[in-house]
Fold each of these.
Amino acid sequence: MATPDLDPLLLDPTRLSIVALLAGTEWAEFSWVRDSAGLSDSALSKQITNLANSGYVEVKTGYVGKRPRTWLNLSDSGHHALRAHVAALHRIVEQSQRADNAHRAEEPSD
Amino acid sequence: MVEHPSAEEAARALRDVDHHRDQALGALHGARWVDVAFALVVFLYLASADFLPSAAGWKGLALAVLVLGYVLLLRTRRGATWLGHRVRADKSAIRPRFALGVWLVFVVVCVAAAFAVPLLHVQIPYGNTILGAVLAIVLIGFGQHLRRGLAALIRHSRSGGAPDGHA
């Protein structure tokens, strides 16, 4: 089945969860995303690098007091990619439901 | 997930997206010390009416400056982080009708209280101090619960929206 709008990067459940987490925010601290996604620092860092290289996530660093902080936010292209990916997933579910309904409608005539 | 997910995998992914998108609403709270500081400010503001009646002129201004400073700090990443906020929920995802409803309820309650208090004609000694203490205790004890309740209401209000981060 051809699903051209599915984003290859977002087919990975971990990356999809990170992007979905950031979609509900204007910005989030690295530590909040790490805790919410249940990842280690290094695992999240690796995924963020992938997403940032594709332009989906923007990373800003700074200090609050003496503590270094990293803030993440989903870019416009990240929002767009998620919307397209979610729409494609909806289409898959709807196509399956339509096929099921058609199959059930055919059954009584057999 | 495979390159061409099945309907079950797609449905599971959609549920995950919905769940994760709403997680930011569970992190609306800031640091505990901010609640305590605000409770102290509210208590001092109201108690000053009993103990420092001459301070009526500048205490309103001082409160306005504090609230303005708090709002301005919340608008920046560093300021919000300093106040204990690890995330800022996307306000554009909140339906305008819901936001308007919350504001209307708030304004109606304030206006009703402003009209009702003078009509009571009850003089309680140190009434302002007692009111300040009650509000401070409510703020410290139930501030987090109130925010959690508001988050649940927001979640409920947008549960009918599209699960794409821009309901």
Amino acid sequence: MLILGIDTATAQVSCAVGGHEGVLASSHSIRARQHAETLTPAIAFTCQQARIELSEVSVVAVDLGPGLFTGLRVGVASAKAMAHALRVPMIGVSSLDLLAFAVRFTPRLIGAVVDARRGEVYHAFYRQVPGGIQRVSGPAVGPPDDVASEVLAGGEDCLLVGDGALRYPEVFDGLHQVEVADAELAYPSASSLVMLAHARALREQWVKPWEIEPLYLRKPDAEIGWITRESS
Amino acid sequence: MRILGIETSCDETAAAVVADAREVLSSVVSSQVDLHARYGGVVPEVASRAHVELLTPVVAQALVEAGLDDGHVDAVGATVGPGLIGALLVGVSAAKALALVWDVPFVAVNHLEAHLYAAFLEEPELELPLVVLMVSGGHTLLVLMEGHGRYRLLGSTLDDAAGEAFDKVARFLGLGYPGGPAIDAEAMAGDPTAIAFPRAMLDDGYDFSFSGLKTSVVNHVRKNPQVSTADVSASFQQAVVDVLVTKARRAAAEYGARGLVLAGGVAANSQLRESMLDACMADGIHPLLPSRSMCTDNAAMVAAAAWWRLSQDGPSPLDTGAQANLRLPVL
Ligand SMILES: [Zn+2]
């Protein structure tokens, strides 16, 4: 069983392929270009590096967010189209789950924190369990102070991971029971996605492409788009 | 050659399969108009979310209706601009993903060029050159089409698009959204000569301006609160139509056009269609008023334009993105 994983929920674009042998190939980049420009060639390249044909993919997994809406939709729309064209099922995983999964070997409480812009973060807390992680609270969106309060209230040591934790050192650096994970762990990884999805795929915990919806956690701004002048 | 077209530039989620830019095998349009009605205009984030939800079933339906549920199309074309960036990216991403899986060319389509090709789907033997009046909520353009891929931009709006003026005036008059059909219906009961609204830049080149007209409507209604909404609607509509038809007709005469084509959502306006038809009859040129479903945003026109672009320029690269402010490629 081969899984193609796609993640574009944050500033990073990444994809990976793998299965029971683990991750066969992966690619990730953080740059100013639009996610849509980067993702499709990255998928082609990653499959080539893994020496697989897209037609061999049996499940398409995608990061459902929360994250940056426009980028997130590029991945979800691409993944749904690929699963539809390949006639294979899909598995959606939250960006917060992916961040926490990457640091699952710590015995501490894990806080996944994704930058939500506008002075807010998306966050959820996890604990290590045999074979993975278990969410103990969230997901939610709010100011970084909410995360700090939750850690202080719990009174135990906590590892924070994600670009949202790195963005607010003034909030987190002074808390003595908090450690913030390095920048290399700041974005959800498509490799984690493939591994998590593989475990779920073995239990056939998948859905149809049209059942996949991004996890926004925020209502849309009701601002009207008078698109036009510039375009004509 | 069968091309799957995808259109998500604004508030219609659409997919279609067209054979050789002539034969529409399927054309599915899922309008989000009800989603946006309560805001009185298109809300970009609402539109983008709806595209993600609707696109997969819309594409599936287009393939099934075309008898291609095995997915064997020869190319995939998608609108890459102009439009709402977040909305465009949904269609572009999905189209490139489908092209990659099916191992067929991806073709980037300019939405404005697609509107030009809508006319050819209904009349493949149209003779060139043509003058095209493209009027929608997003665009107001007067284009001379000299040949396939050969366009001259004669004029465009300096401020609001025609459809935008309809939406804003309808909102001010409390007629609801979308404004075009609402004003069209209200105007039926009104007198188009009741109020002499200004015809901006009527004799002045081929550019348009509608924001002053919108302001005149607002001022007139504030000064005359008892005025009939039907008369205001009819007089406003007549002012817009007069400017559009006068300029289109003058352009057709100046450039020796064989035909005059209406495109875009406002082309569904009954007063505009009638006046354009009368003008063409009087001037002895061929009128082309595509059906309402071809005027408004659809993916059949995208697939048709993709066929022409593919035969002219070949496939587009897979690192193509979306461009909110893409312009018509003019000479
Ligand atoms: Zn349009």
